[in-house]
Amino acid sequence: MNTLKTLLASAAAAAMLSAAGAAGAKELRYAHFQAADLSSPKHAAALAFEGCVEAKTSGAIDVQIYPASQLGNGAEILEGLQLGSVQMGVVHDGPISATYKPFSVLALPYLFDDQAMAWSIVDGPFGEALFEDMRAQTGIRVFALADNGVRNFTNSKRAIASPDDMEGLKMRVMTAPVWVRLVESLGASATPVAWPELPGALQQGVVDGQENGVTNILNASLYQHQSHVTLDGHVFSWHAYMMNDAFFESLEPAEQTAIEQCVVIAKTIHRGMTAAQDANATTLLAEKGLTVTPLSPEQKAAFRALAQPAVREFIVGEIGEEWPDRLDAAVDAYRAQ
């Protein structure tokens, strides 16, 4: 926490530095959806990015952070990034897959063994190729991915220890069809609900449950209207650090370098905070009153046997074989090391 306080102080100092020359500064509107406090990985990372960029550019870039969906939901932020009305956004994977379909390849369930494996693959040649294709197709530059948490199922009805326990449950999913296929392959019904509307949907009983990482469950108080969580870790979910490509290209080379370097710092903070919460999921969620159901490797295999082929078939139907095959090759290469 002392480190985060230092980052906050640095951000404030950088803001004061930039104020003197604000008239000539390049405004960088930075949007994310988590709460504006240091317990939120997205916001802690955003403050670090702000302080870093404004210090490295001597205030030539003025970073303005808009947390808590102030500039809209994920789809609206992506539209803003394409139009240039938002210069930078950190958006979760569901809306990205709706804007750039190949991103849905990362929704293949029960694929990565742990964070080290997942990070290595998205930071390596596979991730670089995917991001460049997205930039070329959408005009949105992806710098990096940070953890949106290992996704687990919560619900208000019963413990889930096998796919049979999913039968009859109404589960909220993100607003992209691949997530519908995932949940339906396990026997539950799927209802797409945008992130800002999710707490209300749980409170009003529109859905029985949802699937998210520990960070989001805690940050949005999703546990308040849920009684069970199953630690199945079906998908390593992501937040993408993105920028309007035309804005980035308009910057001076030294400013571009500052942006890239400061994203590395933000990504590292974001990943570390989220991974720590995932590692302590049982304690953190039990403290919030949830009954926690861990799964053995054999139990998880039963979920994988149903979900992975169904989701892969759907993804291939949407985007073809190229990106699933590339991801499979990256996984195989990692395991062969």
From TrEMBL:
PANTHER family: PTHR33376, SIALIC ACID-BINDING PERIPLASMIC PROTEIN SIAP. InterPro entries: DctP_fam, TRAP_DctP, TRAP_DctP_sf. It comes from Paralimibaculum aggregatum. Residues 1-25 form the signal peptide. Its main location: periplasm. Pfam families: DctP (PF03480). NCBIfam families: dctP (TIGR00787), TRAP_S1 (NF037995). Keywords: Periplasm, Signal, Transport. It is found in: Periplasm. Belongs to the bacterial solute-binding protein 7 family. This is TRAP transporter substrate-binding protein. It comes from the Bacteria.
